[in-house]
Amino acid sequence: MSTNAVLSPIERSISTRLALVFALRMFGLFVVLPIFIPYASGLPLGPFPFLDINSPHTSAIAAGWAMGAYGLTQAVLYIPYGMASDIWGRKRVITLGLLMFAAGALWAAYADNVFSLTCARALQGAGAISSVVVAMVGDTTRDEVRTRAMAMIGMSIALTFAASLIVAPVLFEYIGMFGIFILIATLALIAIGLVLSIPFAQKNTPINGRDSLKTVLTDAKQWRLNIGVFVLHAVQMAMWVVLPQRLSDLNMSHSNSAWLYFAVILISMGIMIPLIIRAEKYGKMHIIMALSIVLVGVAQLGLAANIGELIGVALALLLFFIGFNVLEATQPSLLSKLTHPSTKGAAAGVYNTVQALGLFAGAAGGAWLNVHFGALGLFIATAALSFAWLLMHLQKTTAR
User: d(Cα 368, Cα 373) in Å, to the nearest integer?
Assistant: First the structure.
């Protein structure tokens, strides 16, 4: 393999630090997932507007709002953060976002009612730095190795997700939710130190913010990738509407389910890395992406068929995570290659906004499908969505 196809020491150092920044922030979002709803449901409601305090469902609805509030502010701010980083620099904007994330965690630690907790979570979400970190990876790596750098971030997110599910109940038992939120704020400050230690000076061609956004929003190639990430994360969230209950029906406890996710993610990463290296070395990125989309779709069909009970679910999860992890690395890499250096932040902002909308659509749509058509209908729908995406991808590849 040519040395040009290997991450240089400086590229590896910067990519590792950015992957750690991503992981530290995502840990703060993931670690509360298994314990948040019971905790929030036990707090007083507070001055929550638009909710009927006499309804028996009010507490559960308010807890759900508190849990998901960060997603709304993230979706709103991804694009402004990305555009701001094109103008004022990546490191400054990432630092600002992490400070807001830490402030939100501290507020949440001291929140004594659900309304206050919801506002704190919204402030956490206002630290929407994902698009800026992705843009910074694009700034600091060469085209031929960028997918591997993006894969490092994807791996850090996947491992953080699995690990957080395992450690969350233990942390809650020993330090409580107050201690967890203090830990989240501390990790955000550590992430700031990592960002400031990166030897990086951004060199952008000045561009008007309105022109920047217009350029990004009218690029058909970028929108194909945006649609792809929407589908990928909609399918992911829809799956998890049903999977926890299915595993519970198979007598899998929460902790055992977390270990299953962890094992499947580790194995999928061992398969993903050779696929990405081969795709970069031989210029087969579009073929590997098509194969990965097929794996996501086949996983949905496997879950719909419900064959083999636990072994069948584990195999379907493995296929899904192989495809998911490859696509999580390759799509942002291709986006950065398609984008002018002065609009990388704006492009990543749009991409991450559409991704966040996919998460919402998958959760809401998956719940609706499950209520009306059951798990079978849900997984048939996610399979159909995956294969529709495959057709779009193959049309793009043929056009090339």
Answer: 8
Tell me the pLDDT of the chain averaged across its residues. Answer: 84
Q: Using an 8 Å Cβ cutoff, are 71 and 98 in contact?
A: no
Residue-wise pLDDT for 196-234, tens only, equals 998 866 555 545 555 667 777 777 888 898 999 999 988
Residue with tokens 């906004």: 353
Cα separation, 137 vs 80, whole angstroms:
18
97-342-214 Cα angle (round to 5): 90
pTM for this predicted structure: 0.75
Write out the chain in H/E/C secondary structure. Answer: CCHHHCCCHHHHHHHHHHHHHHHHHHHHHHCCCCCHHHHHHCCCCCCCCCCCCCCCCHHHHHHHHHHHHHHHHHHHHHHHHHHHHHHHCHHHHHHHHHHHHHHHHHHHHHCCCHHHHHHHHHHHHCCCCHHHHHHHHHHHCCHHHHHHHHHHHHHHHHHHHHHHHHHHHHHHHHHHHHHHHHHHHHHHHHHHHHHHCCCCCCCCCCCCHHHHHHHHHCCHHHHHHHHHHHHHHHHHHHHHHHHHHHHHHCCCCHHHHHHHHHHHHHHHHHHHHHHHHHHHHHCCHHHHHHHHHHHHHHHHHHHHHCCCHHHHHHHHHHHHHHHHHHHHHHHHHHHHHHCCHHHHHHHHHHHHHHHHHHHHHHHHHHHHHHHHHHHHHHHHHHHHHHHHHHHHHHHHHHHC
What is d(CA 242, CA 367) in angstroms, rounded to the nearest whole number? 8
Cα gap 383→206, rounded to integer Å = 43
Cβ count within 10 A of residue 42: 11
The amino acid sitting at 72 is: L
Percent of the chain having pLDDT more than 90? 29
Token duo for residue 82: 């990305």
Tokens found for residue 332: 């942002």
Query: In Å, how far are 84, 129, 133, 202, 342 from 206, measured between CA atoms?
Result: 12, 21, 20, 12, 7
